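WARN no homologs supplied; continuing
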Amino acid sequence: MRQSLSFATLAIGFLVVASLIAGGMAAIGSSLFEDWRLVFRQFDSAFRFWAVGLGCGVAVFCIALLFHYEQQLISPKLGWTLLGCRLLLILVLFLTLLEPVWTWSQSIDKRGRVLVAWDVSESMHLSDEHATDVEKAHWGRGAGLFGKQDDRIARWIRDLERGAEPDWTAGEEGVPAEQRDQLARARKANFEDNLKEVDAANRAELARAALLQDQHVFLKDLEANTVVDIVAFGQDFARLTPEQLEQMGPVDQLNVNETRSDLSQTVEAALSSDDESGSLSGIVLLSDGRDTGSDQQDRLLARVRGLGVPVHTVIVGSEVRPRDLAISHLDHPDSVFEGDKPQVKALIQTAGFENEQVTVHLEWVDEPDREPVTEIITPSAAVSEVEFAMDAPPAGRHRFRVQIVPQETETRDDNNTREFSINVVDDRAQVLLVDGEGRWEFRYLDNALKRDPRANVQELLFDQPYLGILSKPFFPRTLDAVTEDDGGKSPFNGYDIVILGDVSPRHLGVREWQLLDKYVRDEGGTLVCTAGKRYFPIAFRGSIVDSLLPIENPRTIQLTSPAQAGSPTSRGFQLSVTADGADQPMFQLAESRAESLRLWSELPGHFWGIVGEVKGAASVWAAALQPGQQASLDHERENALIAQHYVGEGQVLWIGTDSTWRWRSRVGDLYHHRFWGQLVRWAVSFKASAGEGDVKFALRESVIRAGEPAVVQVRWSDSFLDQNPGLEAFAVLEPMAGDAEGSQRVQLARQGGNPQLYEGKAENLPPGEYQVRLEVTGAELTEIPPDLVLAVNETITPELADITANPELLRQIAEETGGRFLQLDQLHEIPDLFSEASTKDTIREEIPLWSHWVVLALFCTIAMVEWVLRKLNGLP
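OK structure emitted
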């Protein structure tokens, strides 16, 4: 019992000594180095420390028992030596299990980043001469135009806001009355002169003056607690330093696209910063609130909310709508058939002219002596629509001008005129509609195209009821009945487009498909293949059809779950129109691209369809998007519902559904016929490309808007390319008005997997008409294709359509992000809102010693010495 007590005392004493050694090592190590400290991690956890201590204490107790036993076998000197080695091993183990580490830590002041976003779009280049004196006083005070009399100006502004004449001499009661009158007149004149200075400055200049006033006091106050990041934005953005902001010339010299004001560029600028000195703490947005970059305001608000920081908005611009007449939008067809009467509608801003007569002319630019079409309206609201009843123009391209007669009291008259062009085609579209039976898709499509006066539709219906009452079936049901032998050409050559439905192999055999292949490949025809539930294309796998279709590995989609019982717009799968598809005319359901995409997303869905993987050179125009799926590039390529590719000199379009008639729900022909009618016209323009034989020279669109690229295409025959391997082609575009500065020479390059197609783009063409001719080097053309005519219509920028400020949007952005909505003269309050944007970050670095190889080497050395001593003295 006494021995056990002594052994326990030894264990406790060992732990005390070991703990003191650990503490001493920590103290000595920390004193030797100022920034470094030696820390034993397990000291922070009482449970782990006592667990390690208990384990080592038990080990010491066992070693003491072993020492007592070995004293009977060896000399005392050897026994004490072995005991010392073993206790030293336990000490090393104890210190190692306490996990000693060298630590270094330092506190760093880290400032948050504030983005100052300055709107420099076209609407910010306007001066607000029509603004109220209150608004002008706020801007002048914010821009520092009133000097050091801030309190006095604030009193005058409060008087103006109450609708009263400012008390020009408040606080000057001790001054004689005559001098006070003189002082009042002088101050009033000075105040009015300052307001005239405000009239002379545009919105962007006032915002810049507010940022730079009083030797950059705002930016300096903001930089006291934050890192300031300045950007100028319009449709894109550019970063500026305070020095660049001060030294720059006119605002329009910035390298920023100013044609639109896209407020979401503030989000892009916030996310794209490479400044690593601090995280984003907030945004200061100086703008008039006009967001013309997107039609989706909810998306903008969601994006700024997603930043998780306050956005403080500062309005620059008048909320008062000026007396101004402006053409904000024109709705007109780019091309019509001869005999059609084009419908032209103009959306006119008539603010300030309510209940007054406004005269609007539609003039023929090419025929200045021709009597214009005149409409006189008496607007009752700020926006009015004018519709012109035009006579059918003759064949050819015609330029027109819509002009509002200027009024003397208008704010500006440079937005009263807009020009556009219309191409009149003197032909009818020849359409062959082929189907196996009279399914719904066939019936609705047949009726829709028959109602189109510019489409000549020929039906071919193989299986149809026939009672023998009439001499022949209602529709032709043999290919010979709808085609003619044309001297070696395919029987389909007379048609601009062939629309193929659910036909079976017994309807169209190998010979018929060979003729269709010739129609497409050699004669430049357009073949539209639509999916069928019974036969097409599944029954034609492994045939010539596979080489014609732009998809492969077709598979069926069929939605039959109980969830498909809602309204037509909520059932089935939707068409996800791709970027390539949105550029095609048949997908233009509205004037703007954004509105067209919105309409496509709201059209009734489909329950059945056939999708596939597009071939390498094919283009996906629409993919099937089932409920719960997300659109992506891979998804589009693997689930192509509408796809197109070129085959030889022609093209094949795949439409993998038989229910486009569902788009008629509650709107009749509006979208169904618009899609198919524009598709037919697209096919007509494709086959009517200028030139014959070895080369076909064409424009993808003969009428474009300023800012859009003009796409020039040339298709060569295979034999011509084989004979001229060094061929190079160029398109030369020259203004028909004789302005040499607008000329461009564009190289036409081979496109992807279609070696016959060469294509090039002419960018940034000014509005006007251009003659386009083909130049070829490295080959000789037996017949040069005729020149083409390209019309570039002026783009109506939405920036100047409505020039009033939009405080509602700025106020909503501020409210939803926890920011403040401020006037320009309240800009100085913003730095105080970021007083706590600076934070302290602690940088800590650790070097673990307990896992270092030296510790392992020390442990192994002591253990080896103990083992050698035992073995040399005959101990087990």
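Residues 2-32 form the longest helix (31 residues).
OK
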